[in-house]
Amino acid sequence: MFLSYYILFLIRIIFCFAQFLDDPQQPIEQYKPANATFYTLCRNSDLYDILETINNYNNRFNSEYRYDWVFLNDQQFTDEFKKLVKVSVAGHAYFGQIPSQHWSLPNSVDHDTMKENMQKMINDPDGAPPYADSMSYRHMCRFESGFFFKHELLQKYDYFWRVEPGVKLRCDVNYDLFKYMIDNKYDHGFTISMLEYSKTIPSLFETFRKSLVSLGLSKLLSDSRNYSGFVIDPKNGQYNHCHFWTNFEIGNLNVFRSKEYNQIFNELDKSNGFYYERWGDAPVRSLILSMILVKGKIKRFDEIGYTHPPYTQCPQEEGFRVSNRCSCNPDTDFTSKWFSCSGHFDGLEQQH
User: Where do the catalytic residues lie (predicted)?
Assistant: First the structure.
């Protein structure tokens, strides 16, 4: 008797499961991601580096959440690039080309002045800074500072997570960073911050100051409510060269689309400092964001293990590294280096 009831019970389970599979209207609970995407600027030659990074990010985070991924290039992506990347990403992959007006010399640039200044940088007796003679790097920095968020492929998203070829997450990320940003009302997130090469931005801060004055925004330079204290030395009112390292960042695209951000960028861009000097996108964006965002809107993700050669952020607490399968050596953590600004940021946040 018991056996017959048991068999009948199994038959009912199988019948119900079969109905579930056959009914296309049967609701299936799925994870609902935030309105966000990964974003990568790269070239066709970066294919195998970005494939390694995609697989790493899938393993550490995105296989669970399946966020989209937008890839931009100043040239057309090859069919091989698109084919191999599409089968690697956990979400949907989108490929776009940057408009030529966003990746070319402005008409106002004096070519002779640019070449002369570039040569001086190359011949610096203390050694040329990285990318001293690179035109493509200058185009990239200008694009990432003032145009990436205008690309059509990013228009439908509210948040982005910037990823560069060759970077790695060194620990599992066991929660949705995008939803964490949204739930906690953060507009910008980073892992590493550091000092910029001063010889690449000799006129940046003075140009920035004049830009704020011309826009009627000079009060932001000493506003205790924003992050001006992160980038400005209170003792002399000068730029301390701290910046958020932008090869890892999670941000609210609507901040970059804002009137204030674009007004300030456009004023800076008029000086052609990206070409006459070698302004990086990290110090430019850090200066603007530090002025227009109030305290509590920027998050340092100190628990995320992350490597962009040659630097690594590695969590120090052993229990965390074990539970999150971290593969980094805590002795290599960048946070305590003399040219790290992370401690300075943390101190500022504690005052909030």
Answer: 249
